Amino acid sequence: MRYVVPALVAAVAFSVTAVAVVVGIAAIALTRWQPIVDAVRSRRWVIAGRVIAIVVVLIALPNAVSTFVDIGTR
Q1: pTM of the full predicted structure?
Q2: Which H or E run contains 46?
Q3: Radius of gyration over alpha carbons of the chain, in Å?
Q4: How does pLDDT run across 34-71, given as a tens digit for each residue?
Q5: What is the DSSP annotation of 26-43?
Q6: Which helix (H) or strand (E) holds 58?
Q7: For the chain, which residues make up each domain, given as ranges?
Q8: What span, in angstroms and rounded, lies between the C-alpha atoms of 19 and 3?
């Protein structure tokens, strides 16, 4: 019984590590494929990425301001 918790932690940590390794290998493989690199570096993708980043910031901004005000008034 005393090894159940460490075994669960090890199993979860191994799963997360395995997923990270697979994602890393996929990212390396995709960056070696020139058509994908050219497509992602195109002006359309750059603008789309900037628009997505701005939208994410605007969505998160009200909650961030509320949190700052809450922390500042304590």
Answers
A1: 0.50
A2: helix 43-72
A3: 21
A4: 988 888 888 998 999 999 999 999 999 999 999 999 99
A5: HHHHHHT-HHHHHHHTSH
A6: helix 43-72
A7: 1-41, 43-74
A8: 24
Buried b (16+ CB within 10 A) or exposed e, 14-51: eeeeeeeeeeeeeeeeeeeeeeeeeeeeeeeeeeeeee
Helix (H), strand (E) at residue 6:
helix 4-31
- pLDDT, position 59: 96
Q: Which residues contact 37 (CB under 8 A, 6 or more apart)?
A: 31
End-to-end alpha-carbon separation of the chain, Å? 44
Secondary structure (3-state) at 3: coil
